[in-house]
Structure formats: C-alpha cells, structure tokens
Amino acid sequence: MKFRILVLSLFTLTAPLPAVAQDKKRALTNDDIRELCEKQIDPDFIVAMILATEKNAFDLSPDVAIELSGKCENSVLKAMAGVGDSGKDEVGVTLRDGTDITVLLRKPISSASARINDRVEFEAKEDVLADGMVVIKKRALAWGKVILARRKKSFGRSGKLDFTIEYVEAVNGQNVRLRTTQESRGANSYGAAGVVTLLFGPFGAFVKGKNVKFEVDHEFPIFIDGDRKINLNDESFKQ
Q1: CB 3.0-4.6 Å disulfide test: which of 16, 78, 128, 217 passes with 136?
Q2: What is the mean pLDDT of the chain?
Q3: Cα–Cα distance for residue pair 153/22, rounded to 1 Å
Q4: pTM for the whole thing?
Q5: CA–CA separation, 212 vs 149, rounded Å?
Q6: Is residue 113 in some structural domain?
Q7: Is residue 1 over pLDDT 80?
C-alpha cells in the first residue's frame, strides 16, 4: 500500500524563550509550564526551572495532570509533583537522533469510523538500544492522533485517513518524540515539532470507492527526533 509522508520538524532552537523562562524570581504556574511545553522547550531545562524556583503555584489535580500529560513529558510532570530520583544511582545514556524504530498498530483504524483528534495507539515491535542498553522496550506504548478522516463517497471517491505518530515511551516513562525520516529536513510552515503525518487517499494502489483501513499489527517505520538523554537507574535495564 502506498502512502506519502509529510514531516513536521523541530521547533527552531533560535526562537526566543517564553517570558517565564527569562524570569527566575517569580513562582511558576500550570500556565507557565503549559506554555513552555507547547513552545517545545527542552524538558530537562523545564525541570531545572521547577527545581530552582521556590513556592511554585501548581494545580496538581487529576484533571489538570491528564491535560498536561498530552503536552509535557513525564519528567516535567514528576518535577511539578515534587517526585524525583536524585537519591538513586543513575545511568545516563543518549538515544541518538535518527535511531530507527518500527511500531505496530494496536487497534484497527478506518476512515469509515475514525474521528478527528481520536487517539491512535501503537507499540514498539522490538527493543531499542542505546550504548548497549535497552531504552525503549518491545511493546512500549507509542501514540498519535487522527487529523483527518473522510469516509468513501459516491461516484467512486475513496476515503481518506490522516494521522500522526508523535511519541514513544522510554523505559523510564520519558516521552520520546518521533519523525518519519532518518535525517531532519528542517523547518516548515506548520510550525509544529517532531510530528509525522501519514497521508492516505485515492491514489496509488487504492481501489476506487473503498474506505482506507489498517489492521492490527500494521507496521510503520519511524525514527527518533533529536538526541534524547535517558537518565535511568540500573533496575530499569533489566530485561
């Protein structure tokens, strides 16, 4: 089955930091953290800001945590909650930009039933290693969302289904951003970071008048978007 790939690349590193990142005196709020995450500021930097700021005014209710989990990495949420692993011996490895990983679709998806913003879940086909250590385990959760779903129409017009594959979870709970090409292709007009979009439609091998459908375990090759430092304790590497 043929498909076209559109790559949305990293938020430019030359963009100015949000105002909150330049003000080290005042307490941080949920809105501050949300802005930093949406601006694709390095999660390690956000965590450092949280730890360096006293009397932060965070709302840590479940509903807020769920909303922020779609924007921020787990390390940021843990820092907001005051949870850390500073007392443990850690092993630091770097998951390199362009590292390949294959993900499998967890549930069938079809242009006949999918809706925009539906969550699409995948799982890692195999372990992914960095410096000889497992940093993404086989069956680790990966996810994206539907951005366009159109049923088949009359006069033989096929359905269309567009969805993203955005993140995969590392063994320490860190969300690792993904893209479709081994090498970054630079900025584009969409202004998003590390998101990949698979575009399917009435082209190539598709039969006219059919809905687009993918079954469980359909494979998608994907790549790590940017170097990612994974800080883990030794037990995290047990296979």
Answers
A1: 128
A2: 74
A3: 52
A4: 0.56
A5: 9
A6: yes
A7: no
